[in-house]
């Protein structure tokens, strides 16, 4: 059965020899469906001698998607797992969209006169759709209302018990929340650790808190965890005052044994901004910090049908205690594909390594220029980055703009990892 058509008449000279037919005796698909999104595909114009299409997909909706280079597709990952006999994930622990009545084995209870968490498709005051489907079809989320009860009443939702499998004892909890309550209402994220299988109460540790002004929209949130023993994740919604209305909702929970991105930058109405802003105008992130104290800023240069991503070091609170020039730190830039299941995401990622021989990574007080940032005088180095990070066409082919908001994730990791990567590349 044919899934693509090759137009030999527009191939450039010598390229025909790059194609070889294989028989089922020398190849296998592992019974996977045909994958137009595989990174192994050539693009639609590859080997063209006149800019015409050399590949035509049988399903027209994949014509502009074939040949993508953002990330391995989920079917690519499936085939690699089959090829190398990998039956389990190294880092993935749990995903829940609350589509099933058993809510992924979670348990809900209330303290005081709180009614506890409820599985809903619509909540009074919002949200009016779940995050998983976002108005496409009916879906479900968990909601804890704060309109009734007394100040201090709380509703608890606890996951099933899980056990860390990696020696690093690092987990990352990612989920979406909707806040429609009072600014003083709280969504607290706890872990309950158990000493052994016989222990039923465990020890509670507060890992994160969401409070403040209501969002009235689904928001991405991440919480770093550090469980070293069997544990549960607990979501507590606490009523902040007697006049509270609405509540908190959560959806699309992903838990993995990996380090969380250090910083999150959300940009609302990103497509409209990209397509209507002046060419080469820019968006500037807040001043961000690495885990070891380096201050930096990210800029997105808007170019109507695509955008570039740039980075610069800035003066910060820890400069006198840091090593300069900034030595061998890896910067990771990710635009999040907001597919609800983390194993199905195809996020776009690039990496940049700070080279201490380059002046752009030296102390901003020494090589930077003075600018104003939120009313404060700071020093900023020149930008460095990539002119074209993603095309608008590529962005719209996935869930990058789900809910009209773009989510960017940034991390700046330490010298040891970068030296390992550099040594690996050299060898």
Automatic annotation (TrEMBL):
SUPFAM superfamilies according to UniProt: Concanavalin A-like lectins/glucanases (SSF49899), Metalloproteases ('zincins'), catalytic domain (SSF55486), TRAF domain-like (SSF49599)
EC annotation from Swiss-Prot or TrEMBL: 3.4.24.-
Positions of the MAM domain: 94-262
Pfam families, per the entry: Astacin, MAM, MATH_2
Domain Peptidase M12A: 1-87
Gene Ontology biological process terms from the UniProt entry: proteolysis
Domain of life assignment: Eukaryota
One GO cellular component term: membrane
Entry protein name: Metalloendopeptidase
Organism from which the protein derives: Lates calcarifer
């Amino acid at each position: 059965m044919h899934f693509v058509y090759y137009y030999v008449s527009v191939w450039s000279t010598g390229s025909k020899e790059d194609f070889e037919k294989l028989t089922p005796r020398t190849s296998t698909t592992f019974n996977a469906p045909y994958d137009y999104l595989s990174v192994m595909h050539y693009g639609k114009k590859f080997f063209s001698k006149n800019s015409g299409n050399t590949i035509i997909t049988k399903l027209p909706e994949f014509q502009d998607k074939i040949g993508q280079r953002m990330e391995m597709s989920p079917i690519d990952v499936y085939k690699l797992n089959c090829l190398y006999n990998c039956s389990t994930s190294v880092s993935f622990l749990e995903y829940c969209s609350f589509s099933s009545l058993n809510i992924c084995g979670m348990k809900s209870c209330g303290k005081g006169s709180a009614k506890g968490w409820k599985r809903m498709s619509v909540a009074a005051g919002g949200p009016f759709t779940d995050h998983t489907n976002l108005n496409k079809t009916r879906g479900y989320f968990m909601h804890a209302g704060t309109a009734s009860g007394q100040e201090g009443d709380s509703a608890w939702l606890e996951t099933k018990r899980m056990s860390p499998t990696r020696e690093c004892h690092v987990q990352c909890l990612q989920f979406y929340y909707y806040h429609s309550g009072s600014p003083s209402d709280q969504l607290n994220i706890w872990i309950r650790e158990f000493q052994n299988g016989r222990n039923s109460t465990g020890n509670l540790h507060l890992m994160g808190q969401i409070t403040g002004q209501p969002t009235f929209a689904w928001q991405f949130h991440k919480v770093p965890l550090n469980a070293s023993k069997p544990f549960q994740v607990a979501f507590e919604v606490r009523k902040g005052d007697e006049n509270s209305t609405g509540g908190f909702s959560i959806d699309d929970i992903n838990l993995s044994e990996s380090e969380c991105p250090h910083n999150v930058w959300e940009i609302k109405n990103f497509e409209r901004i990209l397509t209507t802003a002046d060419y080469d105008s820019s968006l500037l992130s807040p001043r961000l910090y690495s885990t070891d104290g380096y201050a930096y800023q990210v800029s997105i240069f808007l170019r109507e049908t695509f955008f570039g991503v740039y980075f610069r070091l800035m003066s910060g609170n820890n400069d006198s205690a840091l090593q300069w020039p900034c030595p061998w730190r890896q910067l990771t830039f990710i635009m999040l594909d907001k597919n609800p299941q983390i194993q199905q995401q195809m996020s776009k990622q690039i990496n940049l390594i700070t080279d201490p021989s380059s002046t752009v990574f030296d102390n901003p007080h020494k090589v930077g220029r003075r600018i104003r940032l939120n009313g404060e005088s700071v020093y900023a180095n020149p930008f460095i980055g990539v002119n074209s990070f993603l095309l608008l066409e590529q962005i719209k082919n996935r869930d990058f703009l789900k809910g009209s908001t773009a989510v960017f994730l940034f991390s700046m990791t330490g010298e040891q990892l970068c030296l390992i990567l550099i040594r690996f590349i050299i060898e």
